[in-house]
Design a protein that fits this description.
- The structure holds 2 protein chains of 2 kinds.
- By secondary structure, chain A is mainly beta.
- Chain A is built from 1 helix and 10 strands, in the order αββββββββββ.
- In chain A, strands 1-10-7-8 form a 4-stranded antiparallel sheet, with no helix packed on it. In chain A, strands 2-3-6-9 form a 4-stranded antiparallel sheet, with no helix packed on it. Chain A has a two-stranded antiparallel sheet with strand order 4-5.
- The radius of gyration of chain A is 20 Å and the shape is elongated.
- The relative contact order of chain A is 0.23.
- In chain B, strands 1-8-5-6 form a 4-stranded antiparallel sheet, with no helix packed on it. Chain B has a 4-stranded antiparallel sheet with strand order 2-3-4-7, with no helix packed on it.
- In chain B, a hairpin with a 4-residue loop joins strand 5 and strand 6.
- Chain B is globular and about 50 Å long.
């Protein structure tokens, strides 16, 4: 009886750990070609393979916001829908932040097998973006709880 | 005579370059908010970020909305003699150097008037789930004085150097 309870408890702990938010951060050299840079960052089967930078400028007139941004491509090659969040921070040679922001799933889930892109805007800190030398990318995912997951297809 | 000419040219060039420069300062702080509030000091000339107020936020449970209300409110004082454009970025790290939140905010329209105080909310809507593990954060302040050119130059004074995890 005790063993059965312990096994159930262990299973519950394992399931909770598997469904809690997971996160990975990686630093890359800033070397885009025509703004595009291939990178590799993954949690299980959720991957970021490409980032496209756009160094912007202020809108003009009294408007101070810039249109600088980066667009990140996220592939969910796993079997479970996930919520995904991505943060990007660009740093210059001395380690000063020259741009930072985040993007990700706004509504619902990124379904299994789906690809999505999210734009991360840098509207307010952008004036030294051309001095970027490295950047940090963080991928944060939250898998869909099993009880909400769709029933698996019946096997013939 | 040549030296004098050279010195005059150098001084003149420096005077021309200086007004066109944007200022930037970055500083790193340990995560030590009390009831969310932490006093800090990041400044470029006389524009100061003096306080940050962290709000770990929440999400709308039971809905398909995924955005969090987590944010940090930064207080900015323009103690200078000129109106300024201001941008502030905040990145929060855990003890291992993972980013647990990042964002920016700043002047949207016009200038922050000389002598004025303002607050900007920097939202963390998409990367927020591990804010409880925050260990330190960096704050960057970017400013440009009114009427001092549209392009920052390389002649700006060296910013505070902060090692990045």
């Amino acid at each position: 009886m005790h063993i059965r309870r312990a096994a159930l408890f262990a299973a519950a702990v394992f399931a909770a750990a598997a469904l809690s938010a997971q996160q990975v951060t990686k630093k890359f050299d800033y070397k885009p070609v025509d703004g595009i840079q291939t990178i590799s960052l993954a949690i299980d089967k959720v991957k970021i393979n490409q980032i496209v930078f756009k160094t912007g400028r202020a809108a003009g007139g009294p408007l101070r916001r810039s249109d600088a941004e980066c667009v990140i491509r996220i592939d969910n090659d796993g079997l479970t829908p996930v919520q995904a969040g991505v943060a990007v921070a660009l740093l210059d040679e001395e380690g000063n932040l020259v741009a930072a922001g985040s993007g990700g799933t706004r509504v619902g889930w990124l379904s299994a097998g789906e690809r999505d892109t999210c734009a991360i805007r840098f509207p307010f800190v952008y004036r030294n973006m051309e001095k970027a030398r490295t950047f940090l990318v963080t991928l944060e995912i939250q898998p869909k709880p099993l009880k909400d997951a769709p029933a698996p297809a019946p096997t013939p | 005579m040549r030296i004098r000419t050279f010195l005059l040219m150098a001084v003149f060039a420096a005077a021309l370059a200086s007004p066109a420069s944007g200022q930037v300062a970055t500083k790193k702080f340990p995560w030590q908010p009390v009831a969310g509030v932490q006093n800090i000091d990041v400044q470029t000339e006389a524009v100061v970020v003096g306080q940050v107020v962290f709000d770990l936020g929440s999400t709308l449970k039971g809905t398909p909305m995924r955005k969090s209300s987590a944010k940090v409110r930064v207080r900015i004082d323009n103690n200078s003699e000129t109106d300024e454009e201001v941008g502030v970025a905040v990145v929060v790290f855990d003890a291992e150097g993972n980013v647990v939140a990042a964002g920016s905010n700043g002047t949207k329209w016009g200038y922050l008037n000389k002598g004025a105080r303002t607050y900007y909310d920097i939202d963390f809507p998409y990367v927020y789930r591990r804010l409880d593990d925050a260990a330190n954060f960096i704050v960057t302040l970017e400013t440009r004085a009114k009427g001092k050119g549209t392009k920052p130059t390389d002649n700006a004074p060296a910013p505070d150097v902060t090692p990045v995890p």
